[in-house]
Amino acid sequence: MKILVLHGPNLNLLGRREPGVYGTTNMEEINRQLHKLAAELNVQIECFQSNHEGILIDKLHQAIDVYDAAVFNPGAFTHYSIALRDAVAAVDLPVIEVHLSNIHAREDFRTKSVMAPVAAGQISGLGKHSYLLGLQAAVALVNERGLKDER
Ligand code: DQA
């Protein structure tokens, strides 16, 4: 099983960026913990970050025949990128939307996610655990799908 982990804009600055909101763990450390969990779950992952909408869209398109699911933190694109939402809807993969902060407890403009209706589910507010739980959820969904296909 192969899972794509996608980090959107500004997440490359984690650890230094608004630590009161996003914590002091940097993206490399989150990726390291994701790789460790992936090894325990016996799945392969690739972690990828971009600050650019089109590059994230291209990466989702390329995932179609390569990955079984994706864990995606779209950053600020969460709240307004219809193009990324359409990409999530277009790829026939379960996409778990994750956020470090609780987007429902912040500014009004963050409470709306244009991704949520097309995501398999959303995990928000649990810091790095949002990603780790997102990976577990992705693996569980793919396993369930596989079981259904076998019936
Ligand atoms: C975020 C929440 C977004 O509102 C924000 O723009 C981010 C990070 C989070 O992980 O909490 O860049 O997606």
Task: State the distance separating the first and last CA atoms.
Answer: 19 Å
CATH fold call: Rossmann fold
| Structure classification | alpha/beta
Q: How many domains, as an integer?
A: 1
Main beta-sheet strand count, sense and barrel state = 5 strands, parallel
Which segments are poorly predicted (pLDDT under 50) over 5 or more consecutive residues?
Answer: none
The hetero compounds bound to this protein are: 1,3,4-trihydroxy-5-OXO-cyclohexanecarboxylic acid
Written as H for each helix and E for each strand, in order along the chain, the element string is: EHHEHEHEHEH
**Can you give the mean pLDDT?**
95
Q: Please give the CATH class.
A: Alpha Beta
CATH architecture tag: 3-Layer(aba) Sandwich
Helix content: 40-55%
Strand content: 15-25%
Number of strands: 5
CATH level-four homologous superfamily name: Dehydroquinase, class II
What is the CA-atom radius of gyration, in angstroms?
Answer: 14 Å
Number of helices: 6
Q: How are the strands of the biggest sheet laid out side by side?
A: 2-1-3-4-5
Molecular shape: globular
